[in-house]
Known about the structure:
Blueprint: E1 2-4, E2 10-15, E3 20-26, E4 33-38, E5 46-51, E6 56-63, E7 66-73, E8 81-86, E9 94-99, E10 103-109, E11 115-121, E12 127-132, E13 151-156, E14 161-165, E15 175-176, E16 180-181, E17 192-197, E18 207-212, E19 216-223, E20 228-236, E21 241-246, E22 252-257, E23 261-267, E24 274-281, H1 285-288
Parallel strand pairs: 16-20
Antiparallel strand pairs: 1-2, 2-3, 4-5, 5-6, 6-7, 8-9, 9-10, 10-11, 12-13, 13-14, 14-15, 17-18, 18-19, 19-20, 21-22, 22-23, 23-24
Amino acid sequence: MATCSSDRTIKVYNVGESNYEICATLQGHEGPVWQVSWAHPKFGTILASCSFDGSVMIHREVRPREWTCLYHARGLHQSSVNGLAFGPHEYGLVLAAASADGRVSILKHQPNQTWTMDYLQDSPLGVNAVSWAPVGSFMDPDDPQKLAPPRLVTGSCDHGLKFWIGPEEAGGEWKEDDAQCDTTGLVHSDWVRDVAWAPSLLPNYNQVASCSEDGQVLVWQLDAQDNLWKSTVVTKLDKPVWRVSWSTTGYMLAVSAGDSDVSLWKAGSDGTTWMQMNTETTKPAAETMG
Length: 290
């Protein structure tokens, strides 16, 4: 497990069934570190981090408890890098990073050990979060073994989500997807803080969760007939919501809010109503002492 902090460090833990221990403290950023993301283990033990300093660092564990900086993308963005995520391993070692400068960068590792960079121009107000579509989300029924182009969803300070589709061949360009959010239904009214594409349960069945400073958690489903993403509300809190995360099966959604609570939600049988399963509250340190 890895955590990041405004003290500019990243801590890596070994976690057991009943205990944990810090096994490494990673440094190198010159500002608060906002998010970390693990690469698929087929590439080794690789962890990416992004920071207020406008950079992305990619760290690798070369032997137990010993880490090195595989790549430091200094000046990658002109402002804070707010979120990042590694893509599905089928596309290679590839990373997307969302920035307050309004762009999303795509970093891809090359066979000669270099990294290429592409940029998507997203919201001029700034981008807070990015998430990849899992492999299998878009499948050609005539050729189910064909790997579909990569796709991304971003959440921005303009209160909206954007969907992007990558190139089918190396050297192609990313473009904004034709399917976008249905703005006639439920939408966010403040900054979108996080987005999370659900694991692929069925071919061509797609869900994306989003959360916002407006306190809403929405789940968007792609209506292939109308080519629109349509939303349903999971919950509406009176506090900002910072993060959403799907279970590995895609049946449950974890929600982290500004009231220090983490709640778990499960969709009803109709797929449009959500039931709260559990809530974990983190008490202030003064209350937990004794």
